[in-house]
Protein 1
Amino acid sequence: MKITEEMVDYVSVLSRLKLPAEEKARMTGELERILDYMDVLNALDTAEVEPMSHVFPLKNVLRPDTVEPSFARPTLLQNAPVPDEEAFLVPKTVE
Amino acid sequence: MDYRTLTALELGALLREGSLSAAGAAKAGLDRLAQAQGRSNAFITVTKEDAMLRADQVQRLLDARRAPSPLAGVPMAFKDNICTRGVKTSCASKILGGFTPPYDATVAERLDAAGCISLGKLNMDEFAMGSTTETSFYGPVQNPWDPSRVPGGSSGGAAAAVAEGSVWYAIGSDTGGSIRQPAAYCGVTGMKPTYGTVSRYGLIAYASSLDQMGPIARSAADCAAVLDVIQGRDPRDGTSLDAPAGGLLSGLTGDVRDKRIGLPADCFGDGLDGEVRAAVLAAADVLKQRGAVVEEFSLPVMQYVVPTYYIIAAAEASSNLSRFDGVKYGWRAQGYEDLTGLYNKTRTEGFGAEVKRRILLGTFVLSTGYYDAYYKKALQVKALIKRAFDEAFRRYDLLLTPVAPTTAPKLGESLNDPLQMYLSDIYTVSVNLAGLPGISVPCGFASDGMPIGAQLIGPALGDAAVLDAAHAFQLETDHHKRTPPLPGQAAQKGGDAQ
Amino acid sequence: MTWETVIGLETHVELATATKIFCGCTTEFGGDPNTHCCPVCTGMPGTLPVLNEAVLEFAVKAGLALNCAVTRCCRFDRKNYFYPDLPKAYQISQLYLPICHDGAVDIRTAAGAKTIRIHELHMEEDAGKLVHDPWIDQTRADYNRCGVPLIEIVTEPDFRSADEVVAYLEKLRSTLQYLGVSDCKMQEGSLRCDVNLSVRPAGAPALGTRTEMKNLNSFKAIARSIQYEARRQIERLEDGKRVVQETRRWDENKDATFAMRSKENAQDYRYFPEPDIPPLELSEAYLDRLKAQQPEMAEARMARYQADYGLPAYDTQMITAQKALADFFERAVALGAPAKQVSNWIMGEVMGQLSARGLEARDMVFSPAALARLIALVQEGKLNRNTAVKVFEAVFEHDEDVDAYVQKHGLEQVSDAGLVGCVAEEVFAANPKSIEDYKAGKEKAFGFLVGQVMRQLKGQADPAVVRRVLRMKLEQN
């Protein structure tokens, strides 16, 4: 399949990556080659095959509704790149 | 005494006898590490002080004859995508810079309880994406057998550290061969257990449905001892199986009589290096001599495993890696204007090229209009692959294949052609897609002195049978006992020592 | 031209579990920012979700009560998007195989009875809260709400008026409260509603272009926004303009909806099956067990109260509208209070106090035992009704002991005919004119005399006793 730079732009926006022009051009070509190769799967007739999301017949794994202690706030915030005593900080979010 | 020729179990026995102290073992590892690190770059973080403190604690247990496991006091290390409380965990990525988890992975907790002594965190491909350990933000790792070659990946630091003798075993992760392939390239033994038998809690996810942690060590018996510690149901991992755990080491018999071993012809065809083919077929002969029944058979789904794997792994990765955005942990870019700018700049500058390639690929195969053609299709083919392996295991107890088409490539050879690199994963990825146990054992050396690995694959939950066959092979051979040359020492067999 | 408004609802309901959907952190409302959090709900690397069994149970119970079919094999999916209130950058939700589907809810409005079809009901996790701090010009992300369990209930576009929407929401709230799966407090955001609305010429088969309204946090806001938005769309169409498919925000103060700034990129959530959570397979036995646990709902209780206690339909409707009131009623009756008296008190004084204090029935501390005691005191003639109301008002807030209060304040009713007689003599002496009037046949004078006696006795006399004694004395006089 032909992969255009517009398609790469679209997935870049979705994945919050902003590639410089040169990198984008190279990536476009690489993705096209990779996706072309993936088309070998089309040789298989899978019309009757149920997609398999989980390999094992593992079912109903549940946890009891029992409160466990939360973490101390400083511990949770210790890795935040922009510190504040009570929260993670981000630039203004627009409604 | 050169402790580095010992297996983890042999070293553990010395510690329990008292002929070596835990501090002595830790120091032996750390000395070797200091000697090798400058060249191999196998470690991202070395926790020397912690290790020595820990050695004292474990020594008290040893003195009291209360060793909690056969591995008590044996120095080891974790791949740097495994969370360790209070110790920097980076995934070899710039974007996680400075991240110090306030929690332990379940495997780390279990090994801690078993008396492990961790020397630090091991280098890897960034976010475990790569087959050479060249995508690390912290620089590539060199193969201890030949510093001009890669150690394989993504657990390249783990395989190199075990091969060079800095640690006696390491915990790696394997999403498409990331334990088995570097083990093969570095001449050590590496096992990816059945999906769900080792808790993934605390393993920074690459592809959740395929990721599994496992040991890299000097022998199958060492791997069994490590798995005895780390396997078992964990309530914190919903995909962890409620299967019996433990008893792998004590269950080793070395008996493969009448075991039916299948050789998929599709794994021995075009693209496989002749010396690798010969070494793996020779391994089959060894097992035959010990009484196994070896037979070739056809497994045509092999031609679909790589695209299926890369679609699924990239799709899950694109989602799993979205949380790295410079808000909650890790590195944040400077000079952004607004929220979107913060996200774009942090992620674009924080991730390396291979990671970005897989994120874009994964985003594409999940996006509107392409989901059915790629992602859903891959899940359907995955079902067919699983079915083909189920059928094979109705006829065979185990499968034997190469681990990689060639021995370790030269540094810098692989990254220019990502598709070519993906294709080299052909023998390992199906094991992850079908959730099976697979082990890589050293089975010989190529004429250039580089190690070759053979892979034994078992049915789901057939970890014991896989280990036992590998053990049988190692009772008969000594490839796994070879050690690479120390810096400045001549290689044992055609090694390119410098 | 006559226009028809077509409305569908997406309602998010917070489940009343003790812990979050995928970790053991508490779901308690409030709390300082980021104090009800752990590595799982803040999306720290390497952490994994494990489903809370109560979430599954509550979701299935809700689905059964809404007459849904339960998906026997269901799964979770990931909905991927970047926003700082979503620390994993994906929400674990259900797209492909929601837990329940194809339900129906019967509602009644002034226009008559109607069935609203439920398209689906699915489980998902809530997001965090973002609060902008203008002082530092930064937004604070608080993840206490992250991972609080929600069910989203999606209806078919079956509503034609705001009345129907409100009737449905009241029914939904009552049902979920009776089940005990949610407290449905709109002001705490535990019941939130998105309204999808379009208009079309009456009788037209095709649906018009719809808008989605968010930020609706009261029934009043929902009703007003529907009226506003329908009018806005009709005006546009009548002016020959198009309705743009968009998300609009209701502004309570301006009484209008406004288009929300569209996110800079297309919404492409890239849903795919959540690999960290194995599928769910619900057995017949599990569903049977939950069915057997379904409590008696409002309608059944209404019927029972009418049959067993002979209460008027109006009373039963009022009392059962909120489960807490119905439970209160039943407990008071169980303590021996006559049903009609209890019902009168609930509809009058109790609801009056609740609304005056802006309280929800379930938060009331005043006990059924206290009400039963008040009623008994009135019945026994120890308290007159007016004093009882005063006692009620005094003890309502803290549920003080009724007897102790009455005693402490000396409110017990005077039913001693002798004492009343003495007071009557004094009143007669002071009001000879009234006695004459009474004798002349002016019944009003009798009322005045009764009032005077009551006043002398500070209202603590049993009015029946006063009347009896006065009549007797006047006849003798």
Note: Chain A is about 35% helix and 5% strand.
Protein 2
Amino acid sequence: MAEHGRYLFAIGRGIDGETVASTTGLRTAPLALVEHRGLQAVVCDVDLADFGEEALVRNLEDLRWLEEVARGHDHVVRTVGAEATIAPMRLVTILSGDASVRDRIEELHDELVDVLDRVDGRREWSVKAYAVPGREEPGPMSPRGTGSGSGAAYLQRKKEQAARRRTASERAVQVADEVHAHLAQHAVAGRRLQPQDPKLTGRTEPMILNGAYLVDVEHGEAFAAAVAEIDGRTIDATIEAQGPWPPYSFAVLE
Amino acid sequence: MTQSRQPVTSRPYSHAPEYASGGPAPDSLADILERVLDKGIVIAGDIRVNLLDIELLTIKIRLLVVSVDKAEEMGIDWWRNDPMLNTSAQELNEENRQLRQRIEELESGSGSSGGGSGG
């Protein structure tokens, strides 16, 4: 007999039962809705042999396992969140059964309603800006051969290089601030996340801005246009938008 | 108003905005993990996952992974094969090991190796 838990993807309202019925959860388990006091929890069964405490500690270190669960989680959250107001849960939130799901909704009911009110009719966009390499100005060349020997000239060049690097990184900070401030004006809320490491982005240009923006559904196109516009007039950075998706970064309990 | 249709870029699984020329690739694993691992509402589950383990995992992933395929392309496959085969993974594993050890020390209150000997 396999023991099961209930994997909780999201809590929301206005979630369409047909969408849930036609979407699969993790490992082809059917999705279900657990309803309580006007809120709906999107859940599916998971086998505790894989999702129990000890198994999770082991499995979360397995990148393929993690990727499958993460993509499955994201797929469900996006599908049910496309037409409804939802607050996504953190990955691997697992309860013992539907009664326990209802208990949690009961405990957090008012906070959850506040969260859903804040994100109602809004979606999240991600905007990442990457510094364009080699844009920094060459800087004044030091006069060569003026007196002092090659050692001094070498030190002088080193100093200039360091100064240029400093200028470039100051400029990157400035560009990131400007882009974020500009896009925040087109959004209900904006958050700056930690820029991703180049080893992680797989790109050589450093990421200078990793922003998340909460945007009214009907302003989505205008927001995308604002990103394209600021990308077009910013020569020091490449600015890319992704989205929209459910408000992962803005559905947080106070 | 929630009834209005989504903007054109929101077709399910159309990750690349249409206005972007030579647009970005579909969501990388890093992007997905950033969303689902680091975000979302935290409630106490009945299955308790040690957050410290997840933090370490996050450190690892933040540093390393683009996607499984991409990582394999780059020759990073420590999660499947011998980690000793890959230098950067080896360094990272070592770093992780040290972090774990340090956390264990701190947790057991035995971080008493003479305090700040930073130099």
Note: The first strand of chain A starts at residue 4 and ends at 13.
